[in-house]
Design a protein that fits this description.
This protein is 47% helix and 14% strand.
Length: 378
């Protein structure tokens, strides 16, 4: 209830700001190449769009898409509606990009790395290894130029804009049917990895990466088609009942230190909108990012307790193995930057953000996200 009240307060403040013509913080415009503009008075024009999601109706990630649609409607007094459809209702997950690019549907809910086969620059918009936290992504997108210089730099090339709707913390790790204590253990296993850089690093380490859709993972683990899988955070892992088919959990989630999910919008459809509806798309995404980020972190913390209570055991890799994985990550990143100007462009934007953050991050030490007290201290 408190979360709903907070969201309503944020929406009311944003709505009042829009009516008063107030801008600020990069949120006054949704044009990646324009400066801050005053919002127009509500037009009252009725607009109905459709959203094709990559996520199954009823899952948490689908609800992120649906809640963003609801926020857009509320910010426009119900005049601009976006109806979300779960994966398979308008097309397969692999078809969502093309559906939006062609204008068959106006919006697609996704994870940008799914489109790295079209251009590997999309991979960094979705995930990193040994790099950004969820907080880094949030600050980079809205304060460090990432929305204009990375997300819309990439999606504009394909006739779309992008509105990130949530960032997630470090993924839970690798869930497996037998314990993983070394790289050598992983070399004898078929492991599901998602993400371009993750697959490249796995191959460099002699690990066989397997690509399997999220909705097929439970059965693949149950039947032994694969030996292990990384999927998402503990909350989403618990939602898919991985604790029923995996007894072991390799931590931490170095393969994905954070992820970003969002909605791609057909640019022609966007350009045809009244200005205040364009603004509503941006404002709703920014509200969603703040609210869902907090909800996701808390949900993962609660889910971790439940996963461990179910008897799942955690393992970690020795420091020398982690050093090997990091070295492979550096090598793979340099290769991707050399291969793709777009990848290099997005990576440079991320590193520019880091250059500004480095001194302050060092000054904070381990307090940046807080620390655990020693057991028995209090």
């Amino acid at each position: 209830m408190r979360k709903k009240v907070l969201a309503l307060i944020m929406i009311l403040v944003l709505s009042m700001s829009l009516l008063a013509g107030c801008g600020g913080g990069g949120g006054g415009t949704t044009d990646a190449n324009a400066g801050t503009t005053d919002a127009a008075a509500p037009s009252g024009e009725k607009v109905d769009w459709r959203l094709a999601s990559c996520w199954t109706d009823g899952t948490w990630l689908f609800q992120v898409d649906a809640d963003w649609c609801n926020l857009v409607s509320r910010l426009t007094n119900g005049n601009f509606t976006i109806t979300p459809y779960g994966v398979g209702q308008l097309g397969a997950a692999t078809e969502v990009f093309d559906l939006v690019q062609s204008g068959t549907v106006e919006v697609g809910g996704d994870w940008p790395s799914y489109w790295s086969g079209k251009d590997i620059g999309f991979d960094l918009l979705a995930t990193t290894m040994f790099n950004f936290s969820n907080w880094d992504y949030y600050v980079w997108i809205y304060e460090g130029g990432g929305w204009e210089d990375a997300y819309n730099y990439m999606f504009n090339q394909f006739g779309m804009l992008y509105f990130p709707t949530t960032t997630t913390p470090m993924e839970s790790g690798i869930r497996s049917s037998k314990p993983i204590n070394s790289i050598t253990d992983m070399q004898s296993m078929k492991i599901r990895f998602a993400g371009k850089i993750q697959g490249l690093v796995a191959e460099k380490l002699g690990i066989t990466p397997v690509s399997i859709a999220a909705n097929e993972l439970y059965e693949a683990l149950m039947r032994g088609t694969i030996d292990a899988a990384e999927y998402s955070g503990p909350g989403n892992d618990l939602e898919l009942n991985f604790q029923e088919v995996t007894s072991y959990w390799l931590v931490p989630g170095w393969h994905q230190t954070s992820s970003v999910y969002g909605c791609m919008v057909n640019k022609a459809a966007y350009d045809a909108l009244p200005e205040e509806y364009q603004q509503a798309l941006y404002d709703a995404a920014k509200i969603s990012m703040a609210e869902k980020q907090a909800a996701y972190v808390w949900r993962d913390a609660q889910a971790t307790v439940d996963i461990l209570k179910a008897g799942v055991q955690t393992t970690t890799l020795p420091e020398e193995d982690m050093d090997k994985i990091y070295a492979a990550f550096v090598e793979a990143t340099n290769e991707c930057c050399a291969e793709s100007e777009n990848y290099a462009h997005v990576w440079e934007s991320m590193m520019n953000y880091r250059e500004t953050m480095n001194d302050w991050r060092t000054a904070q030490g381990e307090w940046d996200f807080g620390i655990n007290f020693e057991e028995g201290s209090f």
